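Everyone, describe these structure tokens:
***
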Amino acid sequence: PRYKCGISKACPEKHFAFKMASGAANVVGPKICVEDNILMSGVKNNVGRGINVALVNGKTGEALDTKFFDMWGGDVAPFIEFLKSIQDGTIVLMGTYDDGATKLNEEARKLIAELGSTSITNLGFRDNWVFCGGKGIKTKSPFEQHIKNNKDTNKYEGWPEVVEMEGCIPQKQD
């Protein structure tokens, strides 16, 4: 049988299936899928260098927005404004592509940590990172993977291997 987003098992009731992958070096963009709906991918041509973000309604599983923020050549201010504008109860999925950390400052890292991330404080130049959290959650998210950029262990010259993650996000209850 095939499960939503191609994950390895069916999700329980009142959960949303998701699967995501970080970018591969600076060649293949990240991919984010929720409930069999590909929200971001190279094929959809809506991914870019930096941090790619998909917002999903925590009650319905419906896609709300997708954006990417260039954390190498861009400015962190629009990213901070975007993070501040996320409504409570929103599921937030993030994946890096190329470099997601150079322009990140303390304020941006704190806002991402408030969504449930624990790795964001250590995210460095060209690290690969995928994360799924939520606005208004009071706990650390179990959905996060981070691979450090390390020239001795990198799979691609100058970049670590892709990080992939799948799971079942609990639906927001009133």
Q: What stands out?
A: Residues 119 and 146 are 7 Å apart (CA to CA). The two ends are 32 Å apart (CA to CA). The mean pLDDT is 95. The longest helix spans residues 76-85.
